[in-house]
Structure formats: structure tokens, C-alpha cells
Amino acid sequence: MNIVSVFERSAERHPDRVAFTDDVGDTTFAELLRRAVAFSGLLATSGLAVGDRVLDLQPNGTRFVESDVACARSGLVRVCLNPRLTEKDWHRIADNCGARGLIVDERYLDRAAALADGMDHVFVLDGDHDRRLAAAPRVGARIAELVSLNYTSGTTGAPKGVRRHHSHRLASLDGMLRAVLPAIPSAGDAYLHAAPMTHTSGLFTLPFVAAGARQVILDRFDAETFAEAVSRHGVTHTALVPTMIARLLAADVRLGRELTMLGYAGAPLPPEQIRAAHARLTPALTQYYGLVEAIPPVTVLDADDHARAVTEQPELLTSAGRPVPGVAVRIVDADGREVPVGEVGEVVTAGRHVTSGYWGRSTGVKALSNGELHTGDIGRFDADGYLWLVDRLGDMIISGGYNIYPREIEDVIAAVEGVEHVAVYGVPHEDWGQAVTAAYTGTATAEAVLTACRRELASFKKPKHVHHLTRMPVNSNGKIDKTELRRS
Predict the structure, then answer these.
(1) Domain 396-487 fold
(2) Which of 50, 229, 333, 368 has its CA 20 to 30 A from that of 429?
(3) Coil/strand/helix, residue 141
(4) Which of 255-264, 351-360, 366-375, 462-471 is most confident?
(5) pLDDT, tens digit (0-9, with 9 covering 90-100), for 117-146
(6) pTM as predicted
(7) Residue intervals in the chain for CATH 3.40.50.12780
């Protein structure tokens, strides 16, 4: 089985049912497959060979999904480019993967002109795209094992192309249906893509296609547009990054009980914001954890966990949940030995969801001999099997000989009234090695932040510097960019 067969089966079972709705209109399952097959004909007869890498630069939209199916059906390795990246970033990725082709939406053609000049084959998604599809030759499928390269955000160095096979996508599909979604979607359900489909939101495409359910796509996110789309399209499911949830709360969006699932992932969500989202957006909150190298979901904190955390077990609000069925997760020390329950160590995971490696590298994905992936995340398990992510291994601050985890300090500052976003990181210091530094946005004063830290934290964990920013730098995944903060 491969991802193309998921679309083929739904087109056969529900040909006239609406599969996707975007700003252009509705597309049925049969029409989506027809267009994807036609596009694969253009790709396959262009001179591109099986295994060639093709860059794909598009906003959210139904065409984004069509390209996914078309590339997979043509045996091409799709490399999605985030439109928020710089042209320099695009070129670095193109050079790294040796791309021969470019699929580009006409809205980005000016920015991508230099990129297109270096390609053997360019496919522009413009007003003539439908005419070209109508004239495209019909070709048979030529499925290859490798379906895409998914580039890391580069927070710890140059972005790396993570190999993603059909089997990884299907493992994610299985995990979403079994552990993230509260039930198998029905014909009356609708998923809203408000976050970038190049990242976490795109993982929900296959589960909803497999279930024959509808998907609604926004090409941009703001609080008003999101709330209007939920109401107008009868949206029942969505997933956002924490910064989007924070914007909904800041805009005082109230959804009532329309959503039967609001997923979130990508970064920690402060406990106070979780409580506010539970009360004002939906009680059906679900957090899931994963990495580019270990396609989500790896662990899940489901709606029942959130309900229990809000009412009687508040410590669960900072948990990443429990491993999904079929996924192995352990906590190990520096020598790879499993640590006792409650002790902190590095999170390692094994299963069908773990990548086979990075493009162009024989090494680089740190794995044990039994295939476990070292995630670089520091965590611990409790006696009930819940995982707590303490911090990123690379973000740990060593000050005066103490190991300090920024997440603990960030949770304290995030609870201060008037704080919107916060990041804690280390900067070089001649006496301590590193000095704990905090940056935040919002209306709170620096003194209020420091007062909370003095009250809640040990003296060696208190920030030596506090910076009040008007905006927080974020990377292409929507996560706070600590590398940029360290530079400033």
C-alpha cells in the first residue's frame, strides 16, 4: 500500500463527495484524483526520472494536495519549500538535494525566478494549468519507496533533508486514526487546514481522505478568518501551532462546542493558555508529539487527559502524553542505558515512524544499533506512562556548573499576567559559562517577570537578563527562534 492508493480508494468509494474546499471552490474525490493523475502525466513525460527531486513552492490549497499525489504517482521525490523561507534558504535546499524540477505557484514566480533558472523542468501553477492538465498524456503509476524529503528548520545548524517513505506516511495515518482523532471521521466531519500544510497540518490530509471526509483549506491564518471558517464550513477538527492558539485567545475568539478536536503540536503551550483554550475554544484539546525524523504522532495527550488535567490533575498540563500503539519510547542516559521511571534522560524512539536517514549523508541521524532514534529531547516518564519533555538537549543551559532547563523557567514567566510569548536561553558569560536570559512579549513589566522568578525559582535559575520585545522571532515552522535571539 502507498499514499496514492489511499486517494484511489476514496475516489472509488466516494467519487462525488466533496474532498477539499479552498478559495477556488469545491473538489470531489474523483476530480482530485483525475487532476493528480493528469499532473503525474505532465511530470512523467517531462524528462524527469524516478527518484529525481522536485521542489514544490505553493501556499495552502487543493493544488498542494494534487501535487503530493502527482509526485508520488510519478516516482518523484517531493521537496516542499516553505514560502516563509528566504530565497537563500530555497537555494540551499535545492543545492543540498540536487533538485531537477520546480513546481511553483504563480504568486511566487517573481521571488523564485533565480531558482527556476537553475532547474531543468519548471511547472507553473497559473491560469493555464487546467488547460495543460486537460491535454496531459495518461501514464501508468511508477511508485518509488522514497516519497519526499522534509527539511528540518535548521535551529541547530543547516537544514537537513529527512527521508520520508510511503511507509512513514502510512504509519502517521495509522497513529492519527488510532490515537489522535477521537473517532474515525465521518462524512459529516470537516478538517480545517489553517496551519501550513507543509508542516503539522498536512499530516491530517491522509486520515481524512481515507475516511472520505471533507477538508477545508485556508491560505492564510488570522483569528477572524479562522473563526469565520469554523462557523461557515461546519468545521469539526483542526490542528494549530501554539502561536496560533495564543492569537485566538488574544483576539478573544470563542467557539462554543463546534470543534470535536483541536490538536496542537510543535512547541509547549503554557498551562494557563491550555486552560483558557479548554474554556473558550473547545474542551476537545489533543496534544501530539513527534519530530521531522520521527513522523508524528509519537505520544499523545488526548481530550480525556486534558479534561482530567483541567479539573483534578493539573500537572498533566505539561505532559506530552503517552506513546501511541506500535511506537516504542524510552528514556536513556548518555551511555544509552534506560533510566528508572522519574529520572531525566534523552528520549529515544523506535518504530515504523522513524526515518532511514538524511539525504546525502551516511551518518547524521544518531541511532542505536537496534534502530532507536535519539531525539535530542530531554524527558522523563512517570509511573502511569506519561512522558514529560523537560527541554531540548541543545537548549540546556550550563551556568556555574548547574544544568538548567529553560522550559521550567518559561513556564513560570508564561504564568505572569500580561506575558504573551516567552523564550529562555543561555548567552556566554565569563564567570558562569552561560547566563540565563529571558525574552518575552506582552504588556507585563520586566520587574513583574523577575518577581515571579524570584518567588518560584532557585536563585541559580533566575534570569540574569530580561528583554521585553515588541515581537518574537520565529522560524519557518512557527517556533520561537532561539538562535536568532542569541544573536541579538
Answers:
(1) GMP Synthetase; Chain A, domain 3 (3.30.300)
(2) 333
(3) coil
(4) 462-471
(5) 999 999 999 999 999 999 999 999 999 999
(6) 0.84
(7) 3-159, 170-392
